[in-house]
Amino acid sequence: MPHLDDGHIAELIDSAGAAGGTDRAVAAHLRECAACRERVEEARALAAEARRILARAVPSGRAASVVPPFDEVLVRAGHAAPRRRRGVPWRGLAWAATVVMAVGVGWYARGELLGPTGSLREAGDAVAPMARLERTGDDRAPSSLDTLPAAAAGRSSVAATPAPARALASEPTARVDRDEAAAPGGTRGAVVPAESALVPPRQERQPAAAEAPRPAPAPQREERARLQTENEVADRRVVGLVAPQAAKAGAADQVAVAFRWQPVTTTEATRLLGREPLVVRAYPVLDVSVLGDADSVVRVRQASGDSTVLELLQWRDVAPTTRAREAGPEADRGRDARALPPFIGNEARATVGGLRVVARAALDVDSLRVLLAGLR
Amino acid sequence: MPTDWSAIYRTTFPDLVRFLYRKVWEADRAQDLAQEVFVRALDHDPEHPRAWLFTVAANLARDEARSAIRQRRHLALIKTERPAPLVPPPDEELEQREQHEAVRAALGDLGERDREVLLLWDAGFDYDEIAHQTGLARGAIGTTLSRARKRLVEAYRSREGTDAALG
Prior knowledge:
The structure holds 2 protein chains of 2 kinds. By secondary structure, chain A is of the alpha+beta class. Chain A contains 18 helices and 6 strands. Chain A is about 50% helix and about 10% strand. In chain A, α1 packs across α3 and α6 crosses α8. Chain B folds into 2 domains: about 80 residues, Rna Polymerase Sigma Factor, Chain: A; about 70 residues, Orthogonal Bundle (Arc Repressor Mutant, subunit A). Helix content of chain B is about 80%, strand content about 0%.
């Protein structure tokens, strides 16, 4: 056998030799050839030295010692992947819708948009004040706003909702502003009867229409300013409604619910949920609050970068009752049928660690699912 | 059976960071790129995860190097005199930085293919995997690797000798 070349020797020392026959032949040659044995030893020393040299060039500091949690990758994937897959600017649309809605609410609160409310109802016109912005020429406003009642109504079609419910669904925020202006310190934040809360008596509202644009009395202005500050700073007063099933069943006058998020400590949230609230570990937590009704829903809001806020609504997952099991999967879905405040954006749902979780943000659904999958 | 990316991440991430570091020579950037590699992997769910990860890592590092070159050219045009740091780095850090520079220079003396084979070998790839990654013939890996190791050691020693003479 001829002397071993560098390639054979390299394979030999890297234990990546070929078939056994070749190995036997090489071994036999090495037993007889001192020169090749010497070259093998040199190559082995060279390989060890190369490894030592390379080992001197390893990252130092955190990068060397810490493997970041895999959740960080999941989070990054949740943001980056959809951008590659789709060109639809969901986040931009959501922001645009938010701005349009804020403008609409502001106009409505000033009493400049809405004429005599009673006449609207008499005409059977279920167009909400905000929807009137369609006439301002903003192309995106109608489509963005159209999504609001749909999201609020558990993604049911607005057209399929009875007209009274549609009317109610389209002006929840304005309703409460008006009620609070009329009765400061009254029923704010509580479950209120539909008649008094959603359709104030006409005789109380006609003067307001006649006097527009009169300024609000000073105490009312102060109250409104206070509430606006609350909204902007802490979002403690999210108002909405909806229970499409109830509306379809003709119980539209019973479906109005005033939602109010009340800040709670993590301990209190833990007590309500029976475990620690679920969070996306890589995101800083902005606040923890609970929906102010008996069937507690905990909300954890987290900053997910790029000015996006992620909401994780969570509540105890209750096993279906025997009757529900007998009724089949349709009844089991009732576990999910919570009336939640409206939200502009997308949502994804999952059951994680004994909790039903709804992730909502101005992200696409795939991203939200990835975030849900990474919840701890 | 779905790929357990969490487990692959735990076992491969350090190797990937080390591999990338020897290409971009910036620890944070290497870690960031390594995470980006996994982000893409989640999107593609490749059949051979480890090989795929290192291939994408090499491509990302190559893109990174190109953009760095462009950036350096741009900066050269607007370069201003940067004041020297007031506090010199500690000796240990200085020594480490010199070592990294020495290894970097030694690796720079290698041809691109030799360097790639050497780094894959150091990352634990066997000859078949290196051949698959680099497109070289399986039989050429031993020779290429042998040459690369020899040149690396010689270049490093040569630099050490120069430093000692200057020292």
